[in-house]
């Protein structure tokens, strides 16, 4: 009663585990890990930018700041991603 | 019979699935899986650097978060990425040079 026998299309032949399924699962895990990484760094940066002396609750201006900060952090991340990608392509073109 | 693919770089006991694509046992028998691991590892290196540079450049380029990313900040981020890569390359090049001159020195000593 192989594990792969219920799922596999038998693509790799002979294995108990379906590589296609493994690859999809790994991709999902990677995506989750990246989202967590992004969230963790965003939280760190926005806490530093928006929260001064911590009060008894987040007031309205702090909440507004955090919301804007999140959007700006995403903008920054995308800008960096594009710039890095361009640089890599330029390096490859020069090789 | 395990085939060592990829760059063949092996970091011994610090190796993990993410940074040792050539490690035997990780899809070494299945070329499709091996290829997948190589591609995903490459993608992850890219992602990690984007995370790292975003964090660093945020400190250098961002004042108070506003309603949008103004063009000055955007330019700063782009420059920041370029200079970071330049710095990384500079360090590697200079390290290589100092290593070369060191080994030339020690070779001449042992003659």
UniProtKB/TrEMBL annotation, chain A:
Alphabetized SUPFAM superfamilies for the sequence: Tim10-like
One GO cellular component term: mitochondrial inner membrane
Record-annotated Tim10-like domain positions: 25-85
Gene3D superfamilies in the record: Mitochondrial import inner membrane translocase subunit tim13 like domains
Compartment(s): Mitochondrion inner membrane
Top-rank lineage group of the source organism: Eukaryota
Membrane-topology descriptor: Peripheral membrane protein
Keyword Transport: yes
GO annotation, biological process: protein insertion into mitochondrial inner membrane; protein transport
One MF annotation (Gene Ontology) recorded for this entry: metal ion binding
Keywords: Chaperone, Disulfide bond, Membrane, Metal-binding, Mitochondrion, Mitochondrion inner membrane, Protein transport, Translocation, Transport, Zinc
Family statement: Belongs to the small Tim family.
Subunit (UniProt): Heterohexamer; composed of 3 copies of TIMM8 (TIMM8A or TIMM8B) and 3 copies of TIMM13, named soluble 70 kDa complex. Associates with the TIM22 complex, whose core is composed of TIMM22.
Protein's job: Mitochondrial intermembrane chaperone that participates in the import and insertion of some multi-pass transmembrane proteins into the mitochondrial inner membrane. Also required for the transfer of beta-barrel precursors from the TOM complex to the sorting and assembly machinery (SAM complex) of the outer membrane. Acts as a chaperone-like protein that protects the hydrophobic precursors from aggregation and guide them through the mitochondrial intermembrane space.
Record note on domains: The twin CX3C motif contains 4 conserved Cys residues that form 2 disulfide bonds in the mitochondrial intermembrane space.
UniProt name for this protein: Mitochondrial import inner membrane translocase subunit
Top-level taxonomy: Eukaryota, Metazoa, Chordata, Craniata, Vertebrata
TrEMBL record, chain B:
Topology relative to the membrane: Peripheral membrane protein
Keywords, comma-separated and alphabetical: Chaperone, Disulfide bond, Membrane, Metal-binding, Mitochondrion, Mitochondrion inner membrane, Protein transport, Translocation, Transport, Zinc
Superkingdom of this protein's organism: Eukaryota
Pfam families (alphabetical): zf-Tim10_DDP (PF02953)
Record GO terms (molecular function): metal ion binding
CC terms in the record's Gene Ontology section: mitochondrial inner membrane
GO BP, sorted A to Z: establishment of protein localization to mitochondrion; protein transport
Name of the protein: Mitochondrial import inner membrane translocase subunit
